[in-house]
Amino acid sequence: SVSLISVAGMIGAHKGRVNREARTIEVDIRILGDLITRRSVARQMAAWLDDDDVQPISFTDEPNRTYYGLLDGGVDFDESMRVSGELTLVFVCPDPYAVGSFISTSIPSNTTITNNGTADAFPKFIIDITGAQAEILIMNDSTGKSLRIQRNFVIGDKVDVDCYAHSIKIN
Q1: Of 120, 105, 70, nearest in space to 91 by CA
Q2: SS3 content of the chain, % helix, strand, coil (to 5)
Q3: Which of 14, 65, 69, 142 has its CA 20 to 30 A from that of 52?
């Protein structure tokens, strides 16, 4: 959603803040079998879906993309199973973007990594120190921002930089 700022005496408006709303995903399901089987499966699903934390949600038509969400609202499994075995599950994903596959690779120093996704990425770097060095420098060429870690690193040190969690862990 885009908020606009109107100024008296001005034609139109200025663009204000752009906010990415949470994503809602509706999933239609059908549980097959007789009434006893449908209720049994529904109870197993209800237990599985009863979680207060976001969980990974993926679909067979997008195997390399994962959303993180949780069931929104109650589901009357008993009534749905008694009548037809069909119901719609509604998931809310606080982060509206899908997450791609985890990429693990060894790269030499002074390497450029390009984000080919459609949204800003918050990468995680796990750096194994293979030689004595005094600093690690990670730069974002598109924003000009950088992260510099200065330390007398020794062979075998392990540095975990999580841009999403805003954390750096050493060993």
Answers
A1: 70
A2: 15, 40, 45
A3: 65
